[in-house]
Request: fold
Amino acid sequence: MRLEYIIRLLAGTLILLSLLLGTMVSARWLLLAVFVALNLVQSSFTGFCPAEKIFTRLLPGLKS
Reply:
């Protein structure tokens, strides 16, 4: 599996989880979705993605 697919899967999962928890537990969980969205926006401008750095160190055999 390619690294960009894993990052997209992670972002989508975190947003869905945030929406679910924001609906069922506390509205403060929606801040997680905001954080993920802001991270996606900044990575599109800067090219720096913290999740990419973490995954490349944890799983060195991944293709970019």
In short: The longest helix spans residues 3-24. DSSP finds three helices and no strands in the chain. Residues 6 and 22 are 24 Å apart (CA to CA).
